Amino acid sequence: VELPTQEQMMMDDVMNNNCMVKMVLSCVMGGVLGAGMGIFFGAFEPMQPGEEKLGVMQTLRNYGRQSLSKSWSYAKGFAAFGALYSGSECVIEQTRAKHDIYNSAYAGCFTGGVMARSGGKEGMAMGCATMAALSVCMDRFMDIH
Amino acid sequence: MSVNVGKLSAEEKEKMYSAATTEMEYRVELFNKMVGSCYEKCIDKKFKDGDLNVGENSCVDRCTSKYWQTVGIVGQMLGAADQAAMQQGR
Questions:
Q1: Domain-embedded: residue B5
Q2: ipTM greater than 0.90, yes or no?
């Protein structure tokens, strides 16, 4: 075990303590995850009824087009979710200067509220409560706190 | 403090070295106290992870900044009190 050098401390500062970097990373990872899920779930959609006998290539092309649009919409949703959650958790934790479970709860509430903003006041409250509970459960499960 | 040490007499050298030693001791004491109190106040003792997380980092930042400002203010007050005592003593 040795003291961290100046370089290591600066690198650590940029990667782990910088809220913008964390937000961008979560956004990208959320986008990738959403794309993967879209391609996976695209296989389960019922195909548009077309001519009876489509060749293999044609079927694959239809599937590709459909799952691409689906994965794009999933990717946007997950990227927004990841960016919101990670950014708000980082900012809240820096402001409170404490490390406990309430950071996840507040960040989850903020994310849920923003993602459900088209549902009016009740929708936002429901979204806030649900996301806060979900993020607290996930953090407990992953044993971070 | 850029005095040419060779030109002083033995007595003055002795005084300077002892003053520098005392100053060094005070500084080391200040550093140790600062680190100790900010560690006690800011770091969660459960040690689930080896790296400082964001909350602890900003807590330590703020703790050291406040400690340093306190040191400055108290030092100023002590200096003023000393000066006043010296003025009165004259």
A1: no
A2: no
Give the residue from chain B lying closest to A16, CA to CA.
B54
Q: How many C-beta atoms lie closer than 10 Å to residue A84's C-beta?
A: 23
Give the max Cα distance, chain A. 70
Q: Is residue B54 part of a domain?
A: yes
Portion 43-62 of B in contact with A at CB < 8 A: 44, 48, 51, 53-59, 62
Condensed to tens digits (0 to 9), the pLDDT of residues B42-82 reads 998 888 888 888 999 999 999 999 999 999 999 999 999 99
Taking contacts as CB-CB distances below 8 angstroms, the residues of chain B near A145 are 48
Asked if residue B41 is part of any domain, the answer here is yes
The C-alpha angle A66, A68, A72, rounded to 5 degrees, equals 125
Cα B73-B76-B81 angle, rounded to 5 deg: 125
Position B2 in a domain:
no
Q: Is B49 in a helix, a strand, or coil?
A: coil
- pLDDT tens digit string along A36-71? 888 888 777 766 666 656 677 887 887 788 778 888
Is the full-model pTM beyond 0.90?
no
Is A99 close to B62, i.e. CB distance below 8 A?
no
CB-based contact, B65 to chain A, within 8 Å: no
Look at chain B and report how many structural domains it folds into.
1
| Shortest CA distance from B61: residue in chain A | A97
Look at residues A127, A122, A44, A50 and name the one whose alpha carbon lies nearest to residue A84. Answer: A127
CATH value at residue B61: 1.10.287.810
| CB spacing of A99 vs B53 below 8 angstroms | yes
